[in-house]
Amino acid sequence: MNDMLASVPTGVLILCALFGYLSGSIPFGLVLTRAFGLGDLRSIGSGNIGATNALRTGNKLLAGLTFLGDVLKGTIPVLVAWRWGIGAAGIAGIAAFLGHLFPIWLRFRGGKGVATYLGVLLGLAPIGVPVFAVVWLGMAFLFRYSSLAALAATLVVPIVLYLIGNTPAAALTALLTLLVYIKHHANIRRLTSGTETKIGSKG
């Protein structure tokens, strides 16, 4: 990564990181839930601001728009930064992901990052998107746990990217995967205890 960043001016990297963070920190779930007249998403279901919890409002359009917004806020900064190379794109992607996890507007209490992970992946290594989708859908179909599907998909993606020779993207997504697992620590405990909420439940 250092070699990929060496030729990029420091000021450009700072701007890429700032743009990525501010983009990632837009709380689409919270904004859209209020726009739909459904109150504060943080007081619904799990309290998370992502698409899975937005679905617990019973409004599929709201959940879909939340998912789309959370994906694009990861993709757009990466694509904008690509003009300065993969190093700058990686910095923008990491910053966008961190913006979603720790948004300044919500006192650094954000979502768990799965949709934004997918958005960063879409911009950085699109070949990983179908891998993510197949694993997520397969696990969700078999076990009906969104969290388990996300944990499995984000674990498999960096391994596949490494195996096909895309080492920079593999390293970046491995870092994002680690952060996803940290943010899902409570879900992991509930999965092991059998108390995790299944897809489609409003609880």
From TrEMBL:
The keyword Transmembrane applies. Pfam families: G3P_acyltransf. The keyword Acyltransferase applies. GO terms for cellular component: plasma membrane. One of its GO terms (molecular function) is acyl-phosphate glycerol-3-phosphate acyltransferase activity. Pathway: Lipid metabolism; phospholipid metabolism. It is a multi-pass membrane protein. It is an enzyme of class 2 (transferase). It catalyses: an acyl phosphate + sn-glycerol 3-phosphate = a 1-acyl-sn-glycero-3-phosphate + phosphate. It is found in: Cell membrane. Coiled coil: none annotated. The chain crosses the membrane at residues 12-32, 61-80, 86-106, 118-143, 149-182. SMART domains: G3P_acyltransf. HAMAP family: PlsY. Belongs to the PlsY family. Probably interacts with PlsX. PANTHER family: GLYCEROL-3-PHOSPHATE ACYLTRANSFERASE-RELATED (PTHR30309:SF0), INNER MEMBRANE PROTEIN YGIH (PTHR30309). Catalyzes the transfer of an acyl group from acyl-phosphate (acyl-PO(4)) to glycerol-3-phosphate (G3P) to form lysophosphatidic acid (LPA). This enzyme utilizes acyl-phosphate as fatty acyl donor, but not acyl-CoA or acyl-ACP. This is Glycerol-3-phosphate acyltransferase. The gene is plsY.
